[in-house]
Specification:
Shape: flat
CATH class of the largest domain: Mainly Alpha
Number of strands: 10
Order of helices and strands: EEEEHEEHHHEEHHHHHHEE
Radius of gyration: 28 Å
Helix content: 40-55%
CATH topology of the largest domain: Transferase(Phosphotransferase), domain 1
Number of helices: 10
Low-confidence stretches: none
Largest sheet: 6 strands, antiparallel
Strand order of the largest sheet: 1-2-3-4-6-5
Mean pLDDT: 85
Length: 281
């Protein structure tokens, strides 16, 4: 399936979502030899198309938006965003293995990602509410655009985004709620009262109350190293188990066909003669 604009031709390589309001695909530009992938959102519902057009008409950003282009395909509106591999925050975040300082650092990175998204609040609210938030290996945060527009609400503003984002920060910090976690206590109070009006308010609070960086214990370092390299460890374990299984099958086959295991003859023949004495006597 191909969707074409005036300058680009996007070929679908996988389907992320087939919804009532919109579809979401991962696509490549057939006119681009770099192999870059894109998120292609195809909005089918007329009312949602009208709402989006109004949102983009009123939205003014001082910086360049991540929206690459918009175009129509038949009766549908197509939006193109950059694509990055998925590393969903709450799948890769392991709070039990992280220090409070590291958790607070991830929270700050999330706030900065939202501030620098340069998206209309209505779209940013969808990203936050649908948890399209990803944790890179260096603890930086990036957003993805594989959105379902069925809950699009043009009335959402930065205050709505900031308070919902603060709820996500509480989820991150909840793993350290038993520690002397001033940031968790402060965020809890302000989230309950919907006190935040802007992302910069949350950023300021976190910078003021964040725990000072301290040297981690050796046990914490070992846990962090294990969780950071968990995928690699399990990969190595898989291949070791596979090799052992193949060896076991070979030995079983040898025993069934030959009546014994040739490999074990090495050890048997080594002990038939000890010194000058033979065990065959």
């Amino acid at each position: 399936m191909i969707f074409s604009s005036r300058e680009n031709s996007y070929e679908v390589i996988s389907t992320v979502l087939a919804g009532e309001v919109n579809d979401c695909y991962v696509a490549v530009d057939t006119r681009d030899d770099t192999g870059s992938r894109f998120v292609l959102l195809v909005i089918k519902e007329h009312a949602t198309i009208k709402t989006l057009m109004e949102i983009f008409r009123l939205w003014k950003s001082e910086k360049e938006s991540p929206l690459i282009e918009t175009f129509t395909s038949g009766q549908n509106l197509c939006l193109v965003f950059p694509y990055r591999n998925s590393r969903e925050l709450f799948r890769f975040f392991v709070g039990e293995a992280y220090t409070l300082e590291r958790c607070e650092g991830i929270c700050i990175n999330l706030i900065l990602a939202c501030i620098s998204s340069y998206l209309p609040p209505a779209l940013l609210y969808l990203i936050i509410s649908q948890k399209r938030i990803h944790l890179a290996k260096d603890d930086s945060i990036y957003l993805s655009f594989d959105l379902d527009f069925k809950d699009l609400d043009r009335t959402k503003n930065e205050k709505d985004c900031a308070n919902d984002c603060a709820k996500l920060l509480l989820e991150i910090l909840s793993s350290k709620s038993t520690e002397k976690n001033v940031s968790y206590i402060l965020l809890s109070k302000k989230v309950n009262n919907r006190s935040y009006s802007k992302f910069t308010d949350i950023y300021r609070d976190l910078m003021i109350v964040s725990a000072p960086v301290k040297k981690r214990s050796i046990i914490t370092r070992i846990k962090s190293f294990f969780y950071r390299n968990m995928d690699r460890f399990f990969g190595i374990l898989f291949w070791v188990c596979l090799v052992l299984m193949i060896v076991a099958l070979i030995l079983l086959f040898s025993h069934m066909v030959l009546g014994d295991i040739p490999f074990l003859r090495i050890f048997y023949n080594s002990f038939k003669t000890i010194g000058t004495e033979s065990l065959n006597k």
